[in-house]
Specification:
13 helices, 10 strands, alpha/beta, two-stranded antiparallel sheet
Amino acid sequence: MKRNCLIIAEAGVNHNGRLDLAIELCDKAKEIGADIVKFQTWKTEKIITRSVAQADYQVENTGVEESQYDMLKRLELSYDDFKKIKEHCDKIGILFSSTADEEESLDFLVELGIPFIKIGSGDIGNVSFLRYAGSKGLPVLLSTGMSSLSDVDISINALREGGAEDITLLHCTTNYPCPYQDVNLNSMLTLKNAFHLPAGYSDHTIGNDVSIAAVAMGATVIEKHFTLDCKMDGPDHAASTNPDDFRCLVESIRRVETFMGDGVKRPTKAEKQIAKVVTKRIVASRDIKKGEILTKENICVKRNDIGAKAIEWDKVVGKVADKDYSFDEGIM
């Protein structure tokens, strides 16, 4: 998996259960410069019982009170739908991926050709599924919402027990939208340092500020929910990013990558040219005769294009002038 920042346009369920909207989301993700468009794949009866209520944000965002089962069933796309989506992504030149919520769907997606396995925050601690996911031999992105370091540790171990070797951790706050005071972005670095693994950020905030900050802090992956229109009906649209704003996010991330550089402190090519006329050098503060001792009384530091650099002051002071120097002449 590439280690420059991977930008995932998380289409999720923002297709509202419609193949045509899913295809349009792929087109937009390609147009705005995302690396990957990602969905969610499940068989509703395999992941949830009929009695589980919606989360508060789901009721608030949809305006409909129903069971999670009924909501997810309405949003479920078929395997045939995902085959068509993958074919379309291949055609337009954008990577396709999807989060599987159970083993059957994971098998389907791996066979379909996903580039990595994404584990959603809801499967943190799901050791049986994590071991199974780890056995597939693909890179793994592990979201860590609703979890402690201990939960993450257990999940990493389960993935490794299954055989996973390439694991990236995504800091995440599972709230849609996530208020800034709950972001706790330094936790991304905590994850990186605690487990010595690459870390990124799964962004549920409104706006682009937090994702941009995460990249500046070293995020290797940014995942952000993406929609055609934030005002559409559905549980995630209100906390998602529209195409124009997502394009701005992509552009900002690429700029951040450029100005963060490689971390080696050295003069740039332009600085080397400028240094020729602004670097301070050691010059004669009065006429100096050959054989005189060079001291603070007869030399000084000024901008000059000839002479020893000021950093060499201690090497020059106390030496004997090897020739006559005129006022302001550079001391070699």
